[in-house]
Write a structure and sequence with these properties.
The chain is α+β, with helices and mostly antiparallel strands and 313 residues long. 35% of the residues lie in helices and 23% in strands. The chain is built from eleven helices and ten strands. Strands 1, 2, 3, 4, 5, 6, 7, 8, 9 and 10 form a ten-stranded mixed sheet that branches. Strand 9 and strand 10 form a beta hairpin. The chain is elongated. The two termini are 34 Å apart.
Length: 313
């Protein structure tokens, strides 16, 4: 029989505890703490997620049921639900936010050369949001609808490794396009968004940051063609044009030329029209990049199936 460290302890042992301690010291997280240090609180919360605990009482019962095995999991003693509730309410959230950024930076270094199905040297990110429904009586601050509460998780997913690099939580009433104002854009990188983010003033700021965007045109999109490039229609491409906006407000918001690419999906037969400010990559590469945006939908599906995000401990 194996009497050593549990799988949970081995998994948590891969985390850089030195970096976590630096985050705790930065915000004085263990000040006046007696029974539940910040790192042990983090272990308990990670244990609750990985074992699908439903509530604070469920967490307390499960920890007590482990008995002497609990110490081998890295947790010194069972935690009372009142102690954990106080820690979750009063402990500075920036500790865990900064530690998440540390883990994201390490993951970016590990997956820097990871292929993702598109021949592209630059970094590529997919931006989208998902709505998480909540109970209005328990979470009145999460304003969404008259009889419903919700929060939105806005996520920037890197396509090299398929993990989030930015996560922003807002109430359900905040429109996703506002998150474009919160991001810091990397020069030369691609940002793939759906039609909900089609705001030419904000996209122009992406262009001025020397970054590239890829999105889909709306049905009422109005433009004037300046130039057409030849395309190989056997690949599904229909046209590759340089256009300028014709609407007075749209042209004021985005005075630069745009690239308009038509593509018909060979599998579904659906006709798609893409807009981008990149004029150097092949048109087929732009179409393939937008197809990769579906990975962020798979990411949202995964976290909703595997994480307890509808319950706040």
């Amino acid at each position: 029989m194996n009497e050593g460290r549990t799988v949970f302890a081995q998994l948590m042992g891969e985390l850089p505890k030195y970096e976590f301690d630096k985050c705790v010291c930065r915000y004085d997280g263990n000040h006046h703490v007696r029974s539940l240090p910040t790192f042990e609180q983090f272990l308990v919360m990670a244990f609750a997620q990985l074992t699908y605990r439903e509530s604070l009482r469920d967490i307390e019962t499960c920890l007590r049921a482990l008995g002497p095995k609990l110490y081998h999991s890295g947790i010194r003693q069972p935690t009372a639900r009142s102690t954990l509730a106080d820690a979750n309410e009063k402990r500075d959230w920036r500790i865990f936010s900064d530690f998440a950024h540390v883990l994201m930076a390490e993951a970016c270094a590990l997956y820097a050369d990871e292929p993702f199905g598109v021949e592209l040297q630059q970094a590529a990110y997919a931006l989208d949001s998902t709505t998480i429904d909540l109970c209005l009586s328990l979470f009145p601050w999460a304003k969404f609808r008259r009889r419903k509460a919700a929060i939105k998780l806005h996520t920037l997913l890197t396509l090299r490794g398929n993990f989030p690099t930015v996560g922003i939580l807002t109430t359900g009433m905040v429109h996703a396009v506002n998150i474009l104002d919160e991001l810091i854009y990397e020069a030369g990188s691609f940002y793939i968004v759906d039609r909900g983010y089609l705001d030419f003033a904000r996209l122009h700021r992406v262009h001025l940051s020397s970054a590239f965007f890829v999105t889909r045109a709306k049905r009422n999109f109005r433009c004037q063609r300046r130039y057409s490039r030849p395309v190989d229609k056997t690949t599904g491409l229909r046209f590759d044009q340089t256009v300028v906006l014709t609407g007075s407000a749209a042209r004021r918001d985005y005075p630069e030329p745009l690239r308009r690419i038509g593509f018909r999906d060979p599998e579904t037969g659906k006709a798609l029209v893409f807009l981008t400010n990149n004029f150097t990559e092949p048109a087929l590469t732009i179409a393939q990049l937008y197809r990769c945006r579906w990975r962020i939908e798979l990411f949202f599906k995964w976290i909703k199936q595997h994480l307890r995000i509808k319950t706040f401990y």
